[in-house]
Amino acid sequence: MIPAEVLKKVRQIQIRTRRTVNDVLAGQYSSVFKGRGMEFDEVRAYQVGDDVRTIDWNVTARTGHPYVKRFVEERELTVILVVDVSASGAFGSTERLKSELAAELCALLAFSAIRNNDKVGLILFTDQVELFVPPKKGKRHVLRVIRELLYFEPARRGTDISMALDYLNRVARRHSVVFLVSDFIAGGYARHLTLANRRHDLVAVAVTDPRELTLPRIGLVELEDAETGEVTVIDTWSRRAVRRYAAAAHAQAEARRRLFARLGIDSIEINTGKPYVPELLKFFRMRERRL
What we know:
The protein is α/β, with parallel strands linked by helices. It has 9 helices and 10 strands. A 6-stranded mixed β-sheet has the order 5-4-3-6-7-10, with helices on both faces. It has a two-stranded antiparallel ribbon with strand order 1-2. Strand 3, helix 4 (98-115) and strand 4 form a beta-alpha-beta unit. The protein starts with a helix and ends with a helix.
């Protein structure tokens, strides 16, 4: 039995994302994520204006009249959400945690997928793969995915993006649309990003919080690394200390953006202090222009 409070939270996410899926992203999702190619549909009589390269010469010879092959796009996709559930996601200085923002965005993407009859899978990872939900279709399956995103309790605290991408490439043998959702507070994953992007349509979603970029001037602040337990004390009355903190944070974010650009990986940046739908729309419109 699923606890009532869990069902209530899942239902709230479903209601919040429904309008965005139906009204805001309607049509855009299917236009920017293409199927696996073209598949044969039928043979029909040649009509003026048809491409002569599509003539089916066997049928034409047998009937004595020209016939052409008709193809349609093989629309069905597999969407896999690869989500970082390490301890650093349990941070938020606004109304919600980074992990909650990631869960809601993933819910929106999952509902967009099933609206287009696509499959949805889920990989939750820390410094190990914590959970794998194989891709399936249907609303019931997506509600299970959202439940796992909201309430799964990971066994570990660290982050290993390379390991997660390596696991993805082992379990997802067919071309998939992959959303890698993380705060990317890790390193050494460039080669695995490259390999995953060659096999799949990889989209990186970076989740941040305002306090990870700037600090308020409130005196001595004790900062603890959620994954390692390391503690640092910063005097926020010191303009120099605050500037150094902000400069380091922005340099890290800029290095991440340059890496994605160099590897040809599309990315979305969402922040707990801002609405995420405008950033998602910006991403879809960018992909539409490019296509």
